[in-house]
Amino acid sequence: MSEKKRYRTWTVAQKLEIVLAGLRGEISVAGICREHQISETLFYTWREKLLQGGSERLSGKEERTELVELRKRVRDLERALRRKTCGLEILGGGFRTWE
User: Fold this and answer.
1) Residue 43 CB: number of other CB atoms within 10 A?
2) pLDDT digits over 11-45, tens only?
3) CA angle 63-65-69, nearest 5°?
4) Domain ranges of the chain
5) Taking the complete model, does pTM exceed 0.70, yes or no?
């Protein structure tokens, strides 16, 4: 019987600390990965996620406005769908009593 492999879990703070250490450049990425016993691939994945999230937060006002407008549009369409569904349920009940 083989034992089930247990994976370590990292908190957000730990991931952030590791990635920021790599971005500072005081120690090589390979050194940081050895120190924390992680693969370089995992380090670069975390780094890309951090940079992507930061770019989203720093995006211009126009991009944020577009997102707000899209969310409003989705909300309006969901309301319209609820109204139509409710109307069909009412009509369906009326037809059943008529028969």
Assistant:
1) 20
2) 999 999 999 999 999 999 999 999 999 999 999 99
3) 120
4) 8-58, 60-99
5) no
